[in-house]
Specification:
Blueprint lengths: L3 E10 L2 E10 L4 H7 L2 H4 L9 E4 L2 E3 L10 E5 L6 H14 L1
Parallel strand pairs: 1-5
Antiparallel strand pairs: 1-2, 3-4, 3-5
Length: 96
């Protein structure tokens, strides 16, 4: 299908994962892929408008154009700042 591309939409939370392949028209965007997926039905509490997104772990906006084979990833907000965790671990190690 020369006028369509195949992409995947992925989202993971603890104990649950979502991965859906779908076909989009050429010129489809990250937002189009998310809207065409069943993500909102599977995760009704997820605020997709505010969610950060990426393509293969590289940041992307909702307006980013997709290419054949792209995997759109929706990222959850961090619960803990990784720098703070490392700082706490270093302090704990220094005390022992």
């Amino acid at each position: 299908m020369a006028d369509r591309i195949r992409v995947e939409v992925a989202y993971v939370e603890p104990g649950r994962q979502f991965l859906q392949a779908l076909w989009l028209p050429l010129g489809g965007t990250v937002a189009d892929a998310i809207a065409a997926s069943d993500l909102q039905q599977n995760f009704p509490g997820l605020d997709l408008a505010a969610a950060r997104t990426g393509i293969f772990s590289r940041p992307a906006t909702h307006a980013t154009l997709l290419r054949e084979g792209d995997r759109v990833e929706i990222y959850r907000a961090l619960i803990v700042n990784p720098k703070e965790v490392r700082r706490q671990r270093a302090v704990k190690t220094a005390r022992t």
